[in-house]
Structure formats: structure tokens, C-alpha cells
Write a structure and sequence with these properties.
Length: 166
């Protein structure tokens, strides 16, 4: 199975799960540039469970479109737990989705630091409603820019799948 088929298969499983559960999903993406939303909307019938994908590459877009606080961006940086948690919450607010995923990372080849090397990606998954919750995770992926981004999409989709009630 190629990595593309792996992404497509994950996206189909997300769609099937969301449809069966009667839930919707939204995305807030930085380093993936909309690739998660693209993978989801490649699935036929996705309009019944996907309505909003926000690409917020710049800090200004994170602030103005998702409500990420300037203080969070200034003190923790764009690639941080605080930022992705606020991005995910902002995606829920902007969309009324049941689940949102947010990603922000350093895909490379430059931009890394000793504290946040190339391949560092922060994820957050938020759920709305009576059981509202947000989980965040940092993962260090190896590989070139495309590989980091591809692995980020797969991990984000896996996180959505994990949050769909069976």
C-alpha cells in the first residue's frame, strides 16, 4: 500500500465513522497547508460530515481566524501545545463541528531549532458538546518536507478516528 492509498483509506474510514455516528469534523491547519481537508473532501459524500477547513499558515491568520491569543503565540510560539489547543477550539467555534483537528509544525527543510527541530509537529483534537474535550500531542517525524507533512496528515486522521464513538 502506498502512502497516498494509506491517506485515502484513513480518510474513507473517517468519513464512514462520522457518517455512522452522525458527526461532523473541521480542520485548522498550518504546516499541512490544507492537506487534511483535501484528503477528507476527496471522499465522495464528504459534504455530509465535513464543512470547514481553515489554513492558518501565518500567526496573524491563527489569531484573526481562529482566535489564538497573541500572548500564546508570543510566549509559546506557533508550534506549541497552547497554539494548537486554541486552534482546535477556534475551529469548533467557527464551524459548529463535533470534532476538530489542528496541526502546527516545522516541516523543513529549515526553520528548526534545537528546542523545536525540523519534523516537530503539535496536534490537537477537540470535541464539542456534552463531553467537550481537547487532547494535544507533540510528535517528531523524520524525513523530508513531504514526508513530514504526509505523516502529519496520517496522524491527524488517526486521531480523528480515535475520537469517533463506535
Amino acid at each position: 500500500m502506498t502512502e497516498f492509498e494509506d491517506i485515502a483509506g484513513r480518510a474513507r474510514r473517517v468519513g464512514q465513522g462520522l457518517l455512522a455516528a452522525g458527526l461532523t469534523v473541521a480542520t485548522a491547519e498550518s504546516c499541512t497547508g490544507g492537506w487534511i481537508a483535501k484528503a477528507l473532501t476527496d471522499v465522495p459524500g464528504s459534504s455530509s460530515w465535513f464543512g470547514t477547513g481553515l489554513v492558518t499558515y501565518s500567526n496573524e491568520a491563527k489569531h484573526s481566524l481562529l482566535g489564538v491569543r497573541v500572548e500564546t503565540l508570543d510566549h509559546q510560539g506557533a508550534v506549541s501545545e497552547g497554539t494548537v489547543r486554541e486552534m482546535a477550539a477556534g475551529a469548533i467555534r467557527a464551524s459548529d463541528a463535533d470534532i476538530a483537528v489542528a496541526v502546527s509544525g516545522i516541516a523543513g527543510p529549515d526553520g528548526g531549532t534545537p528546542e523545536k527541530p525540523v519534523g516537530t509537529v503539535w496536534f490537537a483534537w477537540a470535541t464539542a458538546g456534552d463531553h467537550a474535550d481537547t487532547a494535544a500531542e507533540c510528535v517528531l517525524f523524520r524525513g523530508d518536507r513531504e514526508g513530514v507533512r504526509r505523516r502529519t496528515v496520517c496522524h491527524a486522521l488517526d486521531g480523528i478516528l480515535a475520537r469517533i464513538p463506535s
